[in-house]
Design a protein that fits this description.
Blueprint lengths: L2 E4 L6 H14 L3 E4 L18 H8 L6 E3 L7 H4 L10 E5 L5 E5 L17 E3 L7 E5 L2 E5 L13 E6 L2 E6 L4 E6 L3
Parallel strand pairs: 1-2, 2-3, 5-6, 6-8
Antiparallel strand pairs: 1-9, 4-5, 7-8, 9-10, 10-11
Helix pairs in contact: 1-2
Length: 183
C-alpha cells in the first residue's frame, strides 16, 4: 500500500495543483488530507493564488481516493464545496501489518493530548506546519509539514507511506525526514 499525505493547503490554488500533480505521479492508492484545506485562517496572510472554490474543484475529482479530516480553519461552509467528507476530527487507517494510523489535524489531538494509541500506532497530523518523522517510544509521530505556509525554515512539503516507511518530502522531492515502522 502506498499513501500520500498533504496538510494545510489553506486555499492556495498553486499548492493544490502541486499536490494533485505529485499525487498523480506518486503511484499512491490514496490521498490523505490533514485539514485546513480551503480557508487561509485569520492568523495567516492570504496565500499566493488564494482561490478556495478552485481548490475544491481541483480536489473533487479525487473524492473516492481522499480521506480528509477537519482542521481548525475548516468549516461547514467549506464542506459544502467538497465532494468528500472532511468534518471529522480524526480518522483511522489500518495497515496490512496491523498497525494503525491515527489521522487528525493536530489542534485537538497531538503530543500534548494523545489519542488512544496502541504500541506501534502512528499519530499523523499537520497544523504546526513543521515536518516530523520520528519514533516516540511505543508510537510514531509523523507530520508532513505544510504545502502552503511552511515554518521554521522548512520547505513546503508532503508525505508518503510505502514499504513500512513514512517520508516527509519537499515539493521538489528532497527527503526532509523518514521513519520506518517497526525499526
Amino acid at each position: 500500500m502506498k499513501l500520500m499525505f498533504a496538510s494545510d493547503i489553506h486555499g492556495s490554488l498553486p499548492a493544490a495543483e502541486k499536490v494533485i500533480e505529485l499525487y498523480q505521479s506518486s503511484g499512491a492508492e490514496g490521498l490523505i488530507l490533514l485539514g485546513d484545506l480551503l480557508n487561509h485562517g485569520p492568523r495567516n496572510p492570504l496565500p499566493d493564488g488564494y482561490f478556495p472554490a478552485q481548490v475544491a474543484e481541483i480536489l473533487n475529482p479525487y473524492a473516492k481516493e481522499i480521506i480528509a479530516v477537519r482542521g481548525n480553519c475548516d468549516s461547514e461552509v467549506d464542506q459544502m464545496l467538497l465532494d468528500f467528507p472532511m468534518m471529522s476530527d480524526f480518522s483511522w487507517v489500518m495497515l496490512e501489518s496491523g498497525q494503525r494510523l491515527f489521522l487528525t489535524h493536530g489542534h485537538i489531538y497531538n503530543q500534548a493530548n494523545l489519542p488512544p494509541l496502541a504500541k506501534g500506532d502512528v499519530l499523523i497530523h499537520g497544523h504546526t506546519h513543521i515536518p516530523v518523522a520520528q519514533s516516540c517510544g511505543e508510537y510514531y509521530w509523523f507530520n508532513p509539514g505544510s504545502v502552503t505556509f511552511p515554518r521554521e525554515g522548512f520547505p513546503p512539503g508532503y508525505g508518503l507511506y510505502e514499504s513500512d516507511c513514512l517520508k516527509v518530502l519537499s515539493l521538489d522531492g528532497d527527503d526532509v525526514g523518514t521513519v520506518c515502522l517497526g525499526v
